[in-house]
Amino acid sequence: MHPDVLTIYRFYQSAFGQQVAQLIAGRILQFLPVRPDAVTVGLGYCLPYLDRLAARTLAASGGRFVAFMPARQGVCHWPGHTDNRTCLVEPLDLPLADSSVDHMILVHALEHAARPSALLREIWRVLAPNGHVVIVVPNRLRAWSAAEATPFGHGRPYSKGQLFSVMSDQMLAPDNWDTALAMPPFFIHKMPRLMRFGDKVGAMLSRNLGGALVVHAQKQVYGALPKGSAKAQGVPVLTQSSGSYFKTDT
């Protein structure tokens, strides 16, 4: 079940959600270079993360930011202080030209995709050559993927190996990764400040302890198409003509 936009919004408005956003945003910021002229698109529910990216980039005098939200989720206005920069979209058919985006982040997006490979193929299409993408998903190996009171407890969680595999198949081979949210969510929702301490301890013990996987990749252009993007073959369909059946392409 995909949580609606109001549910996710309320989570990130809470003290607990704000601490979650701060920890994950730190990982995203370390992976994306500062480019004053970059076009940055967030897909899923990325508003807390786009806020932080925009603050950093605008300090460098520039940057354009847009938030895309899936139709199944719903949409809300962003940012609050200026004209709306959010758009309701079909994730497998983004309203963007080929190679038009420099940076893309996916949060609360890939784990809800019925066709993850097709979604990543669409991301590959809109990214500029050597464009950057950062994908955040629930870590299958950690308790956050079962915490239904948070947005990370919904959809399909991924292990690091699973996410690396599906991204590499679409020519978005990961080149760096990290995790966040090392402390389990069940006992700290009333003590969000402990989360930062837990992440520091978790980083010293193991890189893979976090409940959220954060993976970075750049678009690869090798003169080939992503896996599975060859021209669709005709599907045999039985039709009746003059008392006999034959195959036809659709």
UniProtKB/TrEMBL annotation:
GO MF, one example: methyltransferase activity
CDD domains membership: AdoMet_MTases (cd02440)
Keyword Methyltransferase recorded: yes
Methyltransferase type domain boundaries: 92-135
Record key words, sorted: Methyltransferase, Transferase
UniProt record, GO biological process: methylation
InterPro entries: Methyltransf_11 (IPR013216), SAM-dependent_MTases_sf (IPR029063)
Tree of life domain: Bacteria
Identification of the protein by name: Class I SAM-dependent methyltransferase
